[in-house]
């Protein structure tokens, strides 16, 4: 059965991350995403969304990085009452759990990149021997990117690399804030940022 709602979803696009976009994405909470998923469940129960479209939009809701992306997922759906939403929550719980488990299994285990507790200066990343973090992969530029600590906040800047720098799947344009737990990629080499332990700092 053709689902007209499926054709109205936005096409995937290459994501570019700037400081203002990163700040907007940080304002989204799990509560924001759950509210949107509740509405999607509600309309799936009423037959306005097919099962496949519901699952796809639910995945997009959990991956959304801005309020605009969340709003697009329900822009073509009418508003309903609380009773229907309660019913939708009850029947959709297992589907939500399935998507979360699937996403967890698909997430690769990445090597940790410790953030120094008291760096002497910017941490240069690239293929050159003089870089603080030397990466031998050919997708990494000679001097690819740098991390620096300013006012207690770590900032990541791409230094005009050929294959780009990404944070959580978003390409870095200019300088963006990062923190422990973020996934960073330099070319095709990826890490999970982590706070350096006291033992690592002494070493």
UniProtKB/TrEMBL annotation:
Q: Does the keyword Phosphoprotein apply?
A: yes
Which PROSITE patterns does the UniProt entry name for this protein?
FHA_DOMAIN
Keywords attached to this Swiss-Prot or TrEMBL record, sorted alphabetically, are: Phosphoprotein
- A Pfam family the protein falls into: DUF1707
Which residue numbers delimit the FHA domain? 123-172
What name appears for this protein in its UniProt entry? Peptide-binding protein
Organism of origin? Streptacidiphilus pinicola
Supply the source organism's classification.
Answer: Bacteria, Bacillati, Actinomycetota, Actinomycetes, Kitasatosporales
């Amino acid at each position: 059965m053709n689902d007209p709602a499926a054709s109205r979803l936005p096409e995937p696009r290459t994501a570019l991350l700037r400081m203002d976009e990163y700040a907007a994405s940080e304002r989204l909470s799990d509560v924001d995403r759950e509210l949107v998923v509740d509405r999607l469940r509600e309309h799936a129960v009423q037959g306005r969304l097919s099962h496949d479209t519901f699952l796809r939009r639910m995945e997009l809701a959990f991956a959304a990085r801005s309020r605009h992306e969340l709003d697009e997922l329900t822009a073509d759906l009418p508003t309903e009452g609380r009773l229907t939403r309660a019913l939708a929550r009850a029947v959709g719980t297992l589907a939500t759990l399935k998507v979360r488990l699937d996403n967890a299994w698909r997430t690769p285990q990445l090597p940790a990149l410790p953030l120094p507790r008291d760096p002497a200066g910017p941490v240069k990343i690239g293929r050159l021997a003089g870089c603080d973090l030397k990466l031998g992969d050919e997708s990494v530029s000679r001097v690819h990117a740098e991390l620096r600590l300013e006012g207690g906040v770590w900032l990541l800047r791409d230094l005009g690399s050929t294959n780009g720098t990404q944070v959580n799947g978003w390409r870095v344009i200019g300088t963006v804030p990062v923190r422990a737990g973020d996934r960073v990629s330099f070319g095709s080499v990826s890490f999970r940022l982590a706070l350096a332990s006291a033992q690592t700092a002494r070493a």
